Amino acid sequence: MRDLRMPDQRHPEKAHRPDQEQPKKPSWIRVKAPTSEGYKQTRDIMRENRLSTVCEEAGCPNVGECWSQGHATMMIMGEICTRGCTFCNVATGKPNALDVFEPGRVAHAVQKLGLNHVVITSVDRDDLDDGGADHFAQTIRAIRHRSPSSTIEVLTPDFLKSKPGALETVVEARPDVFNHNLETVPHLYTTVRPGARYFHSLRLLQKVKELDPAMFTKSGIMVGLGEDRQSVLQVMDDMRAADIDFMTIGQYLQPTPKHHRVDRFVTPEEFAGYEKAAYGKGFLMVSATPLTRSSYHAGDDFAQLRDARLKKLGRA
């Protein structure tokens, strides 16, 4: 039995890698340890329903703030990923079989937390014919049944190795927001995201719009991995060519010495510059701060995203 608390068992594919120096975090990155009652209540609901969250598995720095408000990003299909991206702290290996009761448990937790907006993500499941697309669809439908007024955001894998129709299965379940992260700039894919393909991910998001033009699309990247400003601006252009509505940009933080090194800490002023540039390129919504993550403030951001579209259409 693997003990996922042990780094060499959690990331066996990284065990042979030399340690990378972990630089000291600047003042604008540091966050307090979670201690609030709201945090504990959210944690207890997750435990009672035997649910995994990307907040914990990926070591998100915002977990204290989000969980204190009852907001948690639920990670379906287990806690073991079939890929080994060098930036990611989610465990790698052979996953267990899907739990057919998980969609119901997720829906119960959403109802109990009283979420107006919920984010559902997953590990990569290249071992499944459809990459887990039907499990996503079942989870969306279960939430709709238990909490019909809640809006739903999915953060999906790329379905790179899935049979045809996987993407369509998720889109047909009608999430309010379809998110898939590009994660980094193209030239870093071979070292940062070796199991993925930049233009496949971009095309996935473009196809969502072709299938349902009204569905909001969203994607994000990390900075501080070794990219330069021009390559980030090019990603913005590529996203807009794919008609992506919402872009997130956050600082990469190195989970362990075995993970990809932090090239540098991008300053808040640089993030403000990226936000201004992205809005100038036509995104409806942009979140670009050192602590920005895909689901950080997702509920408030969704309300702003919807309002921005109405304003653009002259219906505000």
TrEMBL record:
Basic and acidic residues composition bias: residue spans: 1-24
Residues noted as binding [4Fe-4S] cluster 1 in the record, renumbered to the chain: C55, C60, C66, S295
GO annotations of cellular component type: cytoplasm
Compartment annotation: Cytoplasm
Cofactor: [4Fe-4S] cluster
Listed SMART domains: Elp3 (SM00729)
Metabolic or biological pathway, per its Swiss-Prot or TrEMBL entry: Protein modification; protein lipoylation via endogenous pathway; protein N(6)-(lipoyl)lysine from octanoyl-[acyl-carrier-protein]: step 2/2
A GO MF term: lipoate synthase activity
Residues covered by the Radical SAM core domain: 67-284
Entry note: cofactor: Binds 2 [4Fe-4S] clusters per subunit. One cluster is coordinated with 3 cysteines and an exchangeable S-adenosyl-L-methionine.
EC number: 2.8.1.8
Record keywords, A-Z: 4Fe-4S, Cytoplasm, Iron, Iron-sulfur, Metal-binding, S-adenosyl-L-methionine, Transferase
Chain segments carrying region Disordered: 1-27
Family from the record: Belongs to the radical SAM superfamily. Lipoyl synthase family.
SUPFAM superfamilies from the UniProt entry: Radical SAM enzymes
InterPro entries xrefs: Aldolase_TIM, Elp3/MiaA/NifB-like_rSAM, LIAS_N, Lipoyl_synth, rSAM, rSAM_sf
NCBIfam families: lipA, PRK05481.1, PRK12928.1
Name under which the protein is recorded: Lipoyl synthase
Binding site for [4Fe-4S] cluster 2: C81, C85, C88
Keyword check for Metal-binding: yes
UniProt gene name: lipA
Catalysis: reaction(s): [[Fe-S] cluster scaffold protein carrying a second [4Fe-4S](2+) cluster] + N(6)-octanoyl-L-lysyl-[protein] + 2 oxidized [2Fe-2S]-[ferredoxin] + 2 S-adenosyl-L-methionine + 4 H(+) = [[Fe-S] cluster scaffold protein] + N(6)-[(R)-dihydrolipoyl]-L-lysyl-[protein] + 4 Fe(3+) + 2 hydrogen sulfide + 2 5'-deoxyadenosine + 2 L-methionine + 2 reduced [2Fe-2S]-[ferredoxin]
GO-annotated biological processes: protein lipoylation
Domain of life from the UniProt record: Bacteria
